[in-house]
Design brief:
It is built from 13 helices and ten strands. It is of the alpha/beta class and 322 residues long. Strand 3, helix 7 and strand 4 form a beta-alpha-beta unit. The relative contact order is 0.13. GO terms for molecular function: carbohydrate binding; DNA binding.
């Protein structure tokens, strides 16, 4: 490249990047066509005359998101910066708020949404903006009756979300987990519950939290007994999705306990167009990784610290370095 050509590239680059002229304005100024200006700008990049560097604190977050998407075959990972924040409830609220804003955009193009239960989804519902979607139907993905922590039950969350969305709501009048498989079969004989479960399987968007065994909300709510927790540990359960317990590879544990759940089955998630996980906290890394390995989700909302730990403890195929 001779001096004159290099000078021309520098001149065009300065007009475009420093002075903010459009390619059309530059072409008029120096008397050549706009496609020529486009080629000169590209040549300036190729020659190293122009280097584009993005200087922003979100760049690292975007790189983490892209890594998670690659590792776990996600359509989209949304990582919420939370470095320096030690309050786990605040971190949960920040991630939940981001999920709520994202859901608000997605909801404009669908007619049905389902959600499970838990504290993270509770915060997400509370962060959802008030709207009016009279044609929308909100469903609970699992049963939700009981006396403890009613505010995080699936039915209650579905109702609260429907109020904020200005939508309609259905209720699943059954516990998330019943005492025996026989009792579950008796409950499923109710036509209204069977019909509702069929509708739940056909929702366009499903939102789920990810539970972890060490501090199981199901246990704290009184659904699980000590001996059942021990059975889960013996069968190497690491967490649950929609009250279905999974192992480290994301596979549903084959024990009667999982057959006592009233709600959506894990294989049903594969038929739903958009399945979203919202999860936070280093304590949940093993459970989140397992859920991602199962391939149940299209989108993941997570805090930055947890995302970094997911990457650090997994290889390129999403397998833990154990």
């Amino acid at each position: 490249m001779d001096w004159a050509e290099k000078r021309e590239l520098v001149r065009v680059a300065k007009l475009y990047y420093f002075q903010g002229l459009t390619q059309a304005e530059i072409s008029k100024k120096i008397g050549v066509s706009r496609p020529v200006i486009s080629k000169l700008l590209q040549k300036a990049k190729d020659a190293g005359i122009v280097e584009i560097i993005i200087k922003d604190e979100t760049v690292n977050v975007v790189e983490i998101e892209q890594k998670l998407e690659e590792m776990f075959s996600l359509d989209e990972a949304i990582v919420v910066p939370a470095n320096g924040i030690e309050n786990q409830e605040l971190i949960k609220q920040l991630v939940a708020k981001e999920a709520a804003m994202h859901l608000s955009k997605l909801a404009k193009n669908v007619k049905s949404i389902g959600l499970s239960w838990g504290t993270t989804l509770y915060h997400m519902v509370n962060e959802y903006p008030y709207e009016r979607n009279p044609e929308m139907m909100v469903y609970p993905l699992v049963g939700g009756t009981g006396r403890k922590h009613v505010e995080i039950h699936s039915n209650q969350l579905a109702y609260e979300l429907s109020k904020r969305m200005g939508a309609n709501c259905e209720f699943l009048y059954a516990p998330a987990l019943v005492e025996t498989v026989d009792l579950k079969e008796q409950i499923l004989q109710s036509e209204s519950i069977r019909v509702l479960l069929d509708q739940i399987r056909k929702v366009e968007i499903a939102l789920l939290g990810i539970g972890f065994l060490e501090e199981s909300t199901l246990f704290n709510m009184g659904y699980l007994k000590e001996e059942e927790m021990e059975e889960l540990k013996q069968n190497q359960a690491v967490g649950d999705i929609g009250s279905r317990f999974i192992d480290k590879d994301g596979k549903q544990i084959q024990i009667p306990l999982n057959n006592r759940v009233i709600g959506i089955d894990l294989p049903d998630l594969f038929q739903i167009p958009t399945v979203i996980a919202v999860a936070t906290g280093l304590a949940k890394v093993t459970a989140i990784r397992a859920a991602l390995r199962g391939g149940y989700f299209h989108k993941l909302f997570v805090d930055e610290r947890t995302a970094r730990e997911l990457i650090a403890t997994s290889d390129d195929k999403g397998n833990s370095e154990e």
